[in-house]
Structure formats: structure tokens, C-alpha cells
């Protein structure tokens, strides 16, 4: 059987990566001031944060319509595929995983497999790229998801945000009340909870500098304990220079780690707001 790899736009793959690896990317909508945009199609990181700052109403995100998923699967069937593995952002952020799971046999003669990445952004994109590589080599869905599960078990990530208001208002932050009362005095460090996969508060830190240093210490512990090569991502919102500077500092301190710079696009930026930085890492997919 011929297997297609599908993901959503929060994987933040470049158009070239998607084309070269035969990955289908379904855009996630962003609604701002009453207008719906499709991430990666008519709204991009460039200019998004300026629109966000000037928005008259709190922006929101949605999930792709059922019809768009079905049209995607029909197009893949017409292109000669028999099945699709759809790797989506965490079910705790979007209902896309459940929607796709409900479309398993929506297209006659075509089988859909839903996979919850339990996270998002470029670190999910690395899972998608690995899946595409394996699919091109003839691996089955079970073989691919087994490797993705193994890689997912090695993932950790920490977000440092300037303001929790977007996450709290959007309902994407669990136990937000523990932080909101003292937001003027702290830079919160957030993470995905390993049990629930919700974004949760991790620690309160007094400054961005201290928050990044604390995140770096957590990373250092992980590097020391790992018995496999690590791939790490520094992720920025509207502060690319800060992200690049942090990456260069980390790369100097951890010369055996493969670092990459990425970004929070419009969908995730809607929830994190401006000024966010993150460090995520996992076993290097190339080593599996």
C-alpha cells in the first residue's frame, strides 16, 4: 500500500521541505478582527505579530473544517495513495486529532490513521520529517508510529513567555491561576505535562535572563543523562535576534548537540503572544 504523510501547519515545515519529502500540510485557521486567515497561506510570521499588537479583539484559532480534511484525502487517493498517516498538534491544543480519527473510512478505498504528536511547532515537524523518510522507504504505519512513540518519549521542552494572558484567555494553560496574580513580577516557565499533555506552569522566575538560565540548566541535566545524540531547537516569536543569540550561546556550551533555530508561527503565536522563547530537545531522529 502507498502511504501519504499529512500534518498541520504548526509543524512549521518550509514549503521546500514539504515538497521534497512529499508531505501534505493542512493549514490551521487564525481568526483576527473577524477575518479568517489560513496559516502559511495568507498569514505568515512576518507581519503577524504587528497585526496581533494592533488587533481590536482577542484573536482565536480554529481547526480545519471536516470538508477540508476530506478533500485532502480525496486528492491523495486520486494521486495514487491508499492510506494516510496524519500527524497533528496535541489534542490538548486542538480538536484536529479527534476530527481526523473520525474520518478513518470517510473516503471509500482510503484509510486514515490519526496520530497525536502530544506537542506542536518544529519539534513536531521533526517527527513528521522522520515519518516521511520512513514512508518513502516502505515502512508501515505501525513501524512508523512505533519509532515516533520512541522519539516522543525523549522529548522535553520549556517555554518562557512575556505574558500569560493569551494562553489563559484561550484556555490553553492548565492551572493558570497559580501564576496570573503575580505576573508583573515574574517570567513564567511553562512546559507540556508528561501525563496530561496540557501546557502547565513549571516555575516562576524573576527575569527573562534567569528564566533562560534555569531552562539551560534543565537542558544540561538532560544532555548529561542521555545515552543518545540530541537534537535541540531554540524557538522564538517576534524576537529572532534573541533566539539567535541564545542558540549561539547554547551551541558554544554544548558542542556535541545539533541545534536548530525555529519560530512560533501565527497559530501558536496567537496563544503565546509576543516575546516568547523556548528550548525543546529530543533524541536526534537521524540516530533511529
Describe the structure.
The protein has 288 residues and is α/β, with parallel strands linked by helices. It has two domains: 3-28 and 63-152, Rossmann fold (3-Layer(aba) Sandwich), CATH 3.40.50.10170; 156-287, Hypothetical Protein Tm841, Chain: A,domain 3. It is 39% helix and 24% strand. The protein contains eleven helices and 13 strands. The protein has helices at 15-20, 45-54, 66-78, 96-101, 121-136, 141-152, 165-170, 177-180, 208-225, 240-253, 266-272; strands at residues 3-8, 23-26, 29-32, 35-38, 60-61, 83-88, 111-116, 156-160, 187-192, 199-205, 230-236, 258-263, 277-283. The strands form three sheets. It has a six-stranded mixed β-sheet, sandwiched between helices. Strands 2-1-6-7 form a four-stranded parallel β-sheet, with helices on both faces. It has a three-stranded antiparallel β-sheet with strand order 4-3-5, with helices on one face. Strand 9 (187-192) and strand 10 form a beta hairpin. Helix 5 (121-136) packs antiparallel against helix 6. It starts with a strand and ends in a 5-residue tail after the last strand.
Amino acid at each position: 500500500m502507498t502511504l501519504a504523510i499529512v500534518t498541520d501547519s504548526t509543524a512549521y515545515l518550509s514549503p521546500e521541505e514539504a515538497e521534497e519529502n512529499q508531505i501534505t500540510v493542512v493549514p490551521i485557521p487564525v481568526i483576527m478582527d473577524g477575518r479568517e486567515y489560513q496559516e502559511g497561506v495568507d498569514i505568515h510570521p512576518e507581519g503577524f505579530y504587528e497585526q496581533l499588537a494592533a488587533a481590536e479583539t482577542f484573536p482565536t484559532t480554529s481547526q480545519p473544517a471536516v470538508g477540508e480534511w476530506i478533500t485532502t484525502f480525496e486528492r491523495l487517493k486520486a494521486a495514487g495513495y491508499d492510506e494516510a498517516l496524519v500527524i497533528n498538534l496535541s489534542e490538548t491544543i486542538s480538536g484536529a486529532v479527534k476530527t481526523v480519527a473520525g474520518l478513518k473510512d470517510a473516503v471509500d478505498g482510503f484509510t486514515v490513521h490519526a496520530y497525536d504528536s502530544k506537542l506542536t511547532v518544529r519539534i513536531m515537524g521533526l517527527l513528521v520529517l522522520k515519518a516521511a523518510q520512513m514512508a518513502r522507504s516502505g515502512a508501515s504505519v505501525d513501524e512508523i508510529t512505533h519509532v515516533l512513540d520512541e522519539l516522543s518519549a525523549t522529548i522535553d521542552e520549556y517555554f518562557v513567555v512575556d505574558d500569560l494572558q493569551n494562553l489563559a484567555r484561550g484556555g490553553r494553560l492548565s492551572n493558570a491561576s497559580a501564576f496570573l496574580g503575580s505576573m508583573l513580577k515574574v517570567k513564567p516557565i511553562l512546559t507540556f505535562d508528561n501525563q496530561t499533555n496540557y501546557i502547565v506552569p513549571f516555575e516562576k522566575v524573576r527575569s527573562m535572563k534567569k528564566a533562560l538560565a534555569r531552562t539551560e540548566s534543565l537542558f544540561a541535566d538532560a544532555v548529561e543523562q542521555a545515552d543518545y545524540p540530541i537534537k535541540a531547537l531554540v524557538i522564538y516569536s517576534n524576537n529572532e535576534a534573541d533566539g539567535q543569540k541564545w542558540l549561539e550561546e547554547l551551541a558554544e556550551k554544548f558542542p556535541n548537540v545539533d541545534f536548530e533555530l525555529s519560530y512560533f508561527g501565527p497559530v501558536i503565536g496567537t496563544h503565546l503572544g509576543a516575546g516568547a522563547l523556548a528550548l525543546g530537545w529530543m533524541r536526534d531522529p537521524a540516530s533511529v
